[in-house]
Amino acid sequence: MCDAHDHLFLSSPRLPGQELRDASAATAELVAFREAGGGSVVQWTPYGLGRRAADLPLLSRATGVHIVAATGLHQAAHYAPELIDRLRNGLAHLFVAELTEGLATSGVRAGFIKVAGGFHALDAHARWTMTAAAEAHHATGAPIAVHLELGTGALDVLDLLCGELGVPPDRVILGHLNRSPDLMVHRQAAEAGAYLAFDGPSRANHATDWRMPDAVRALAEAGFGDRLLLGGDTTTAGARSVDGGPGMPYLLRRVRPRLELALGAALVERVLTVNPGLAFAVEW
């Protein structure tokens, strides 16, 4: 059972005082996830945001949960301008190195590339990072996972990555579609061949828990059950289950049974096992 989008470690100036830095809390969260039936977690924390790559193998061995690490770059607002300037001419090379050689000195190779769009648009930073991600994909075959700001811009992302830059659609994972429950856009993205991630349950300020079953049922009934992914997207310490929030176990404890009522148990099991295995597969 795979949580296809979550965070064990994350630090950003946009989340002051809410950083995920505590390794013991990350371990406890993984244990809680495993006890709920979880077996793997895809950490979408990219370069420069405190992903603590060297700790990931230790956590995985201690808890028995497989962890997939990311390279990539988030929106510009998450970084100091000088860091962006330093990466300006070597971003694709960085992504390739982290996919093939390892993250920093940890020896942990990234399994995918995480980038981000903007609200209903792709600014110059998004186009730059996605162009580098496409170059790294063509060099390695690694999938590209995209943060869609408030769930918007999915078709613009596909036009750029798949249309202009030649990335196969089944190597693109669109994140946060639950935040913009536009069933027509979801259908068009699925028809294009991308994977659609509904990630971030229980966020009261987003259209998540209460609309998500309708969105995924519409896609399943249209024949796109093999395109669906589910994730928790725990981004703050207070959102962890061990700190009183829903956390990673919520995905299996509450979201899974609710979706089984809408989709049936067999399809939900595929969404949590087979689909992420294919979406994040890489032939090294």
Automatic annotation (TrEMBL):
The enzyme's E.C. designation: 3.1.1.104
Molecular function terms from GO: hydrolase activity
Statement: the UniProt record of this protein carries the keyword Ribonucleoprotein: no
PROSITE patterns: PHOSPHOTRIESTERASE_2
Glycoprotein found in the keyword field: no
Main EC class the enzyme belongs to: hydrolase
A Pfam family the protein falls into: PTE
Residues that bear N6-carboxylysine: 114
Signal peptide: none
Cross-referenced Gene3D superfamilies: Metal-dependent hydrolases
UniProt keywords, alphabetically: Hydrolase, Metal-binding
Family: Belongs to the metallo-dependent hydrolases superfamily. Phosphotriesterase family.
Protein name: Metal-dependent phosphotriesterase family hydrolase
